[in-house]
Amino acid sequence: MQILSQKINLNSMQFNLYKEQFSNYFNRKDVEEEINSSIDLINSKVKRIFFIGNGGSNAICSHMMEDYAKIAGIPTFAFSDASLITCFSNDYGYENAIAEWLKIHFTAGDLLVAISSSGNSNNILNAVKFVKEKNGDIITLSGFKTDNPLKQLGDINFHINYSHYGIVECYHQVILHIILDSLNVRK
Questions:
Q1: Which of 18, 102, 168, 182 has the largest count of CB atoms under 10 Å?
Q2: CATH assignment at residue 176
Q3: Concatenated DSSP letters for 45-104?
Q4: Structural domain containing residue 65
Q5: Residue 136 near residue 160 (C-beta atoms within 8 A)
Q6: How far is Cα 167 from Cα 13, in angstroms, rounded to an integer?
Q7: Within 13 A of 83's CA, how many CA atoms are on the CB side?
Q8: Domain count of the chain?
Q9: How many other CB atoms sit within 10 Å of the CB of residue 100?
Q10: What per-residue confidence (pLDDT) applies to 5?
Q11: Would residue 111 count as lying in a domain?
Q12: Are 151 and 145 in contact (CB under 8 A)?
């Protein structure tokens, strides 16, 4: 079997697309303000962080749950265990599974970080609405259309105005790492 590989040229269209979009986004003043607001929120009053997402966004949640706990010393949780997901989805329906999990665990002083590339996932939206009803703090990370429902629900909303999963997911990961790297360590 012959394996074909394609080397990337640092001047290729795809590479330049990532580079250009990245530079444009992180040079915006509103993004800087959102990042600083997130840092202030977490440093000033957050006791625990809950990360939620689907698919690639859920992988980001697992990664961030580990890093925020290990590096910043913040108790963190992610709805990412297969047994947990299938149990709550079976008992409450997939669209309500995360909200039902949060009803058990989310308390005053906690932060919900909701990640959805499209901003349209019903299970994420229902969980965010539950936390909003409890007056909990919410940071959202979404992409694609500027009028997506998730972007309208958070206290702080990061939106990547681009319809490419790779770019949107990379930005979400970078944003969360920038925030993490700027937090006061609690250890």
A1: 168
A2: 3.40.50.10490
A3: H-SEEEEE-STHHHHHHHHHHHHHHHHH---EEES--HHHHHHHHHHH-GGGHHHHHHHH
A4: 42-181
A5: no
A6: 14
A7: 0
A8: 1
A9: 17
A10: 57
A11: yes
A12: no
Residues 147 and 152: their CA atoms lie apart, in Å, by 8
Residue 169 pLDDT grade (very low, low, confident, very high; cuts 50, 70, 90): very high
- For residue 91, being part of any structural domain is answered with yes
Pairing state between β 110-116 and 76-78: unpaired
Nearest to 142 by CA among 158, 153, 131: 158
Q: What is the pLDDT of residue 7?
A: 62
Counting beta carbons within 10 angstroms of the beta carbon of residue 137, is it exposed (0 to 12), middle (13 to 18) or buried (19 or more)?
buried
SS3 159: strand
The single-letter code of the amino acid at 54 is N
Mean pLDDT estimate for the chain: 93
pLDDT tens digits for range 21-30: 888 899 999 9
Residue 9 placed within a domain: no
> What DSSP designation does 113 have?
E
Say whether pTM exceeds 0.70: yes
Domain assignment of residue 30, yes or no:
no
Task: Take residue 149 and report the two structure tokens written for it.
Answer: 């429902």
